[in-house]
Amino acid sequence: VQEIEKIEVGFLQIVNNWIFLPEFVQISISKDGTQWEKLDKQKHEVSLKEVSASKYFSQTLNKQEARFVKIFAKNIESCPEWHPSAGGGAWVFADEVIIK
């Protein structure tokens, strides 16, 4: 168990490769891996039509104690109607997790 001040996770959006930012990110922490505390659900304002983007979702914890961190990123599931591969599967790519 350690004191955690901040958790950040980065995501990519590369529309031509079917990679989209998640609809939202939900970070949870736990001291024992059994009982989880969900932190604020975070959304973004980046357009799905933005060809290339990166976004960090960040949660400040004010030195809360935790041993485990769980990150849930909600995928949009399929490419939007305007996309050349409309209806095809969409990807979520996380590029790094930073725990301070």
Write the layout of secondary structure elements.
Layout: E1 2-14, E2 25-30, E3 37-42, E4 52-66, E5 68-73, E6 93-99
Antiparallel strand pairs: 1-4, 1-6, 2-3, 2-5
Describe what you observe in this structure.
The chain is mainly beta and 100 residues long. The chain is 0% helix and 53% strand. It has strands at residues 2-14, 25-30, 37-42, 52-66, 68-73, 93-99. The strands form two sheets. A three-stranded antiparallel sheet has the order 4-1-6, with no helix packed on it.
What descriptive keywords fit this protein?
53% strand, three-stranded antiparallel β-sheet, mainly beta, 100 residues
Count of runs of 4 or more consecutive helical residues: 0
Summarize the amount of helix as a percent range: under 10%
Sheet/helix structural class: mainly beta
Quick check: average pLDDT?
96
Q: Would you identify the regions where 5 or more consecutive residues have pLDDT less than 50?
A: none
Order of helices and strands: EEEEEE
Q: What can be said about the biggest beta sheet?
A: 3 strands, antiparallel
Strand order, sheet with most strands: 4-1-6
Query: Could you tell me the number of beta strands?
Result: 6
Short description:
This protein is an all-beta fold. The protein is built from no helices and six strands. The chain starts with a strand and ends with a strand.
